[in-house]
Amino acid sequence: MSLQRTFVFLAVLSILPLLGMFSFVWRHWRPYQQSQERSGYRKAMSAIERRLLLDSNGSSSLLYATQALKASSAATEVLNVKGEKRTPSKVTSAKTGSDVTKFNVTSTLVLFIGYPRSGHTLISSLLDAHPHVAIANEYKLLHRWMDFSAKQRTRQYIFNELLNDSVRQSMFGYRSATVNHTFNYAVPNQWNGRYDKFLEIVGDKHGPQTTRFLEYSEHWLTVSEIEKLLNVTVRFIHVIRNPLDNMATMAVRRQTNRTFIEQGKVLDNFDLLRQQMRTYFYLSETNSMLLTKLKVLNIYSEDLISNPKPVLSTLCRFLNLKCSPSYLSTCSSIVFGSTSNTRSNVQWTQELKDLTYRYIDKHQFLRRYRSH
């Protein structure tokens, strides 16, 4: 009997390594298997992204690959900017010009100045949806310009870089109609990541960092140099949001994520709030100075949200851009339904509120918020 027990015990011991090996394989194989089950679309994106990165000339075949990916993808429910579920419509094929001609009439370079969490992403996405506009997302053109060689400081190279980044955003970023984000900035049935025959305007959205870069007057020469070498007019968009809400959002997102706001919680961190206030005040001081030196249009986030069409029309006039009624209506359809009063998600002292209102009185472009 004892011999039989010994035999069973030895048999169990011999099986244990096999069980451990099976467990190890399962733990590593199962996630891989699950990822493979979902990887058809991802593999397609990866292949096209590699092609995108290798295609330094920004050829129209790259844009065709983007459209093919979007058109062949299964319809995926995503959230639009209003937070409503929608199914992205099929993307029609773009009428692309040749690499030689697509930038022939490009006359304007658009850059953004401003503050974190103020609404740049939405406005840049709406502009990028125009058939003759391509806006990159945080390409950091002004910073990169300092390191570019003479061969890179050309219309063809710079404009292709900005166009390629626009394409990336339409495939993988917040402008993608198939990638699920909390907020999706793709404009349905318009031209995100594509263009129609030619491009009149290219640009780069990188608001706060552009403001920081232009704090130094010697860097203004970079803007003049770009205008001269690329034969364009550089225009700036200054996106402004209620300072109380803007600074509150900056503080909340510095410490936590968006769900904190959605759950109605209140941030009680005066040191963090003061830090974000200093950042906002510093940026607004610089922007106030830039308004007198550069070609700048002020866009108030609250105006865009409450009545998008007039604001978009003003933006189009500033850029000398023809905007069709269809473009204006479709862009307006994805804009938030109401403003976000994030100030209620942050604990304020009366001292900090008074300091903010004194600062608002100091700058003409902020005075509309004195009574808010």
Q: How would you portray this structure in words?
A:
- The chain has 372 residues and is α/β, with parallel strands linked by helices.
- It has helices at residues 2-37, 39-54, 60-72, 120-128, 141-145, 155-172, 207-213, 220-230, 243-255, 258-262, 270-290, 301-306, 308-318, 325-333, 350-362, and strands spanning 78-79, 85-86, 108-113, 133-137, 201-205, 233-240, 296-300.
- The strands form two sheets. The protein has a five-stranded parallel β-sheet with strand order 4-5-3-6-7. A two-stranded antiparallel sheet has the order 1-2.
- The longest helix has 36 residues, at 2-37.
- The radius of gyration is 26 Å and the shape is globular.
Question: What's this entry about, in short?
Answer:
Helices cover 52% and strands 9% of the residues.
Q: Widest sheet: strand order?
A: 4-5-3-6-7
Low-confidence stretches: 29-97
Largest sheet: 5 strands, parallel
State the share of residues found in helices, binned by percent. Answer: 40-55%
The proportion of strand residues reads 5-15%
Structural class assignment: alpha/beta
Order of helices and strands: HHHEEEHEHHEHHEHHHEHHHH
Total DSSP E strands: 7
The number of helical runs is 15
End-to-end distance, in Å?
A: 89 Å
Question: Which geometry do the CA atoms define?
Answer: globular
The Rg value, from CA coordinates, equals 26 Å
State mean pLDDT (0 to 100 scale): 80
